[in-house]
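User: I'm putting together a small comparison set for a docking exercise, and I want a reference complex before I start. The sequence is below, and the ligand is magnesium ion. Could you produce the 3D structure with the ligand included, as structure tokens?
Assistant: Of course. I'll restate your input first, then give the structure tokens for the complex.
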Amino acid sequence: MDKSIKAVTNSFNIKNEIINIQPFGNGHINDTYLVTTEGEEHKNYILQRKNHHVFKDIPGMMENIIRITNHIHQILVDGKVANHQDKVLTHLPTGSGEYYQVDQDGNYWTLCNAIEGCKSYEKISDPRLAYLAGKAYGEFQKQVSSLKGKPLNVTIPDFHNIEFRLNNFHKALEINFQDRKVEAQKEVGFALNLAEEMKTLLNHQRFGELPERVTHNDTKINNILFDEDDQILCVIDLDTVMPGLFHFDFGDALRTAANTAEEDEKDLSKIGFDLDIFKSFSQGILEEAKNILTNKEVGLLPHSVKFMAYIMGLRFLTDFLEGDVYYKIKHPKHNLQRTKAQFKLVEEVENQMDLMKQIIAELAGSA
Ligand code: ADP
Ligand code: GN1
Ligand code: MG
């Protein structure tokens, strides 16, 4: 066990002896560890080294997370929900009362209770699970919609702002690390062709036609924890919760849940968009959130799936052209492979767009 990681972990208010710390999860940005402890009250923890090059204001981020989790905790207690400790993340403070610890190298660390007996999925093939996942993100939306007080801190400015992402993409084309543009010619062309269409949500937002809400902004399907019986426990990975559009959460969840292959699938023929998963997830989320959504928001839900697959592909492509400075990669062409997979998904989604619109209209009762 790494001594410095153990020392950081011990700076949080943990009662029991640490017996093991091991790497956990497969995120692209932060480093996650499972901390095992022993003692009377056997308890495990999730330790994270937050990437402070990506999250430039970690105190602000943790302030958001504590506000949100306290708020959800209160809703669960008021509603007398059983096992509420497993239905929202609980972070621990350090001895000095902060919810993060800075180590000697300037790295930021956080610690929360591990939820026992949980599992998460990278993609989903069972419509019943997709329905529950929709319920989970819909309920999360409802819970955070009643958060009072000042607006949340913006943890990453312009996170899903397509103009900002396109500007970065154009800068990356100039950087053209190791002349990678040549290899990515087809994908660069794809990105440029769709650029105007992908400003749809932003344009509606600018015309005041889409309300800004509190959104999660990283609703990959693996950010929902299920219990052993596949019942929903909670929504995790709250680093990017901040003001945003409902579409970001809807689109990102389906980009991962309804994709028939992995996010970085190499064999593009395996990538498809599962309409049954789309339908079940949409049913779940709309059952929870339909009443808070405007007709305009509902009408743009199918487009949001295409948008989120596109913006992820664009960000992976940008990183490839910049020389892999943002996302963790497992091999040299990983970001290009991710781009190809996301752009293939964009095409697959587009092929089903009419059916998706029909499904949403039926579910929203406006068909
Ligand atoms: P990342 O930003 O890297 O995706 P997450 O916060 O999603 O980080 O955590 C990574 C993984 O660790 C999750 O996919 C989940 O499997 C696991 N995990 C995170 N928090 C908890 C928790 N409180 N209890 C149990 N497992 C957790
Ligand atoms: C990153 O690290 P992870 O997996 O939670 C990224 C998301 C992307 C995702 C793509 C802060 O999330 O925006 O959707 O990779 N997070 C950040 O898999 O950039
Ligand atoms: Mg995650």
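The chain has two domains: 3-113, 127-366. The CA atoms of residues 53 and 326 lie 9 Å apart.
User: Thanks, that's exactly what I needed.
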